[in-house]
């Protein structure tokens, strides 16, 4: 793979990672509704069991209920880690890039006016390739980390939801006995 092909590859990779960032950001919206459902169910059970005392519960209920709350707490933690603390590297503005090219060209003009344009082009192409490569790598690591913690968040939410549904059994059972 020659230099030009590599630069084009890194350029495509850079823009691909920006698209992936947007997709991961959109996936981060899903857990909000699941949080609301699980939290509402947990509060309802808390109200029925501890406040109204409409259900007598045993150790099985408390184990499952506290497990659901613990899983919900983990889900919130994973969600925060997947949402917050990421900085993405973006290309400099077109004016900054052009100014950089002008500085390179001026520096090479001082050294050799005849070869300045070819040296400046080569240095500028190297700069673009290194920029795309470095920024794409940084953004890929961010996206991978975000997706990993988002996956953990959704997994913890599913576990929490399943446990809270199982914890509803004593409440539901007491309603059918009436």
TrEMBL record:
Keyword Transmembrane helix: yes
Regions crossing the membrane: 30-47, 59-81, 149-172
Phylogenetic classification of the source organism: Bacteria, Pseudomonadati, Pseudomonadota, Gammaproteobacteria, Oceanospirillales
Record protein name field: Uncharacterized protein
Alphabetically ordered keywords of this record: Membrane, Transmembrane, Transmembrane helix
Domain of life: Bacteria
Taxonomic source organism: Halomonas campaniensis
